Amino acid sequence: MEKFEIKVTYINHSCFSIETKNYLFIIDYFKGDLPKPIIGKKTIFIVTHSHNDHFSKKIFEYGNFKDNIYILSKDIIELYKNENIIYLDSPNNKDVDINTMKKIWKKDNVFILDKDEKFSYHDVDFYTYGSTDRGFSILVELPYLTFFHAGDLNDWEWPEDTDLERKQMKSDFRQEIDKIQTDQLDLAFFPIDPRLKEDYDLGVSYFLDVLSPEILFPMHMWDNLEFSKKFKDDYDDIYTEIKEIDFDGQEFYITIEVE
Description:
Layout lengths: L1 E11 L2 E5 L3 E5 L14 E6 L21 E5 H6 L18 H7 L5 E4 L4 E4 L2 E6 L7 E6 L2 E5 L13 H17 L7 E5 L10 H10 L3 E5 L7 H8 L6 E2 L8 E8 L1
Parallel strand pairs: 3-4, 4-5, 5-6, 10-11, 11-12, 12-13
Antiparallel strand pairs: 1-2, 1-14, 2-3, 7-8, 8-9, 9-10
């Protein structure tokens, strides 16, 4: 039996870092304190989509840009171009600028993915799935660890939605979850948005039933972190371990055992 120590840090909102033996993964950063680069470990940024609560161009200023790997949703690039026009300034998205476009366009450490794609980097495989909003959700497989980050994939059934809209959302969401293929899911990061009120758990409940991750980290709580306690209390009788999040920068140490 071989043991691997994994460090997960909650940064803010839907952003987590996952530190493994050889890598530092940082997913959906938009604000908060980033961990410092770690000598001997490759930093891999993943951005599931371009919403400004999941993406900031500050990730391109982290450490030595050329030393990092960037896995970006296709719609990130679409922020920087529209019908062959490059916008120098945009009132709708503060991250749109020509300097960022020049920095990431056709660089050999920047990889643009759409949904339903596979990408491999050394011993890490990335599988993208769709979203019920924008961009992709993503499954990451290492020889000793598998984790899933939902991005904005969720059963977003709002109180004001019609029955038809709710039915379509549920169908679209479950279709994406049912695509996910993995024999073992160690960690999962999934939205439980308090704005959904009593329907906050429609998505995560189905996700837990279908994929049964060993550990689940709630996210997308809009700084209402006490909501994670409610979620944990509501689901304290299931097999999956629910992590309660108390503050930005909170660290979790996890041991993965592999035969």
